[in-house]
Amino acid sequence: MHSFYPSQIIEYLYCPRYTYFEYVLRIPQFEEKFYKVQRGRQMHNEKLERNKNYLRKKIGVKEKWLDQYLGMPGLRGKIDEVLELEDGTFAPLDYKFAEWKDRVYETYQQQLYCYALLIEENFGEKVNRGFLVYTRSSNKIVEVPIPEESKAEIRKSMDAMLKIIGQNYYPKATKFKRRCLNCTYRNICIQ
User: Fold this and answer.
1) Beta strands of 47-134 (E only): which ranges?
2) Which end of the chain is more exposed for a tag (fewer CB within 10 A), N or C?
């Protein structure tokens, strides 16, 4: 059985054809766009050493687990921090090498939804919120709700991705045509 990373599920949610081109036709993506991801990882490691206790105290952390690589059927990923909060709930925390722009991007939310599923599966605890730390905005912490329907959408996406890969199914492209302008596969995708 395939096991997806959150980034792969986010790509599927952006446009289902990502899954087809990358995992059925095996056409790799242009990698330059991942600079920010790499830089974010570097920043994450630096921030972990400098501010970790201050950030956790601010949101009421009782216990923490760092750099948790977790897996379950169909999903795997490395979570910056798994937190047990003073109210007894669990939550993922993710560092972003980004500035806070008064809104949480959908991709960041989807990543936290994936992490919530992984925490629930591996820790046996419900997750109903997560946290983002924007390292380029003085480590601003933003709380993100994680509703049950969003976790269900992630599970549904995993099933749809398995269908695309297992049946060589060519899915419909996203209905948001503006997304096609910056797509890695725009030159080979038949609309």
Assistant:
1) 61-72, 75-85, 90-96, 129-134
2) N
Angle (nearest 5°) at CA 18 between 102 and 74: 90
How far apart are alpha carbons 12 and 95 in whole angstroms? Answer: 22
CA dihedral for 6, 99, 43, 80, sign (positive or negative): negative
Residues 134-151 have pLDDT tens digits of 988 988 999 999 999 999
Per-residue CA distances from 153 to 46, 59, 63, 98, 191 (Å): 33, 27, 29, 26, 25
Question: What residues have CB less than 8 Å from 181, skipping those under 6 apart?
Answer: none
Per-residue pLDDT of 38-70, as tens digits, reads 666 666 566 555 666 777 888 889 999 999 999
Reported as half-sphere exposure (CB side, CA atoms, 13 A), residue 129 has a value of: 12
Residues of the chain with pLDDT under 70: 1, 30-52
- Which two tokens mark 14? 């952006």
Supply φ then ψ for residue 119, to 5 degrees. Answer: -65, -45
